[in-house]
Design goal:
Blueprint: E1 5-9, E2 12-21, E3 27-34, E4 41-48, H1 56-59, H2 61-70, H3 90-93, E5 99-104, H4 120-134, E6 139-145, H5 150-155
Parallel strand pairs: 4-5, 4-6
Antiparallel strand pairs: 1-2, 2-3, 3-5
Length: 160
């Protein structure tokens, strides 16, 4: 069983593998990056299948090298060690007062179960994650979704 741990590193408070319980009792795992100081912060949430702890440069080295050649500013102001495929770099958002929440989708990364993209189950899991982030003691109740491709299509279901 995965356990949750917290640390302060690179100017952020990082909660690794935090448990988020779904409405059916399944427990998904999230990494949370937030300011070190106590406070209430809006959350930028990503829910997806690509491994919340897998650095972009490790998972897709060709794409990473191409991105940096074309857009070197992507790496400015960041160690890039927390940059993942298709999601916000917490080293760029946390200093501006945001919490970045990354959730491994059911059946991927450290979240048990079976992956079922675009299914009603996945939609409900994303809903449960949004609701969870909205009531955390470090949060201000505002939760935004961020991403391109898969993350954007998945998040697009939640326009209110």
């Amino acid at each position: 069983m995965t356990s949750h741990r917290s640390e302060i590193r690179d100017g952020m408070r990082i909660d690794w593998d935090a448990a988020i319980t779904m409405n059916d009792g399944a427990v998904l795992r999230a990494d949370i990056f937030r300011p070190v100081a106590d406070g209430k912060f809006p959350a930028i949430l990503n829910y997806g299948p690509y491994g919340k702890g897998v650095p972009f440069q490790s998972s897709r080295p060709f794409a990473w090298e191409r991105l940096l050649r074309r857009n070197p500013e992507v790496a400015q102001g960041s160690t890039t060690r927390y940059q993942n495929w298709e999601v916000a770099d917490p080293e760029k958002w946390v200093p501006d007062g945001y919490a970045v929440v990354r959730v491994d989708a059911r059946g991927t990364g450290l979240s048990p179960g079976f992956i079922d993209p675009w299914s009603p189950r996945e939609t409900r899991d994303l809903f449960d994650c949004i609701e969870w982030a909205g009531i955390q003691d470090w949060g201000n109740g505002k939760v935004g979704l961020n991403g391109i491709s898969y993350f954007a299509m998945n998040g697009g279901k939640w326009r209110r």
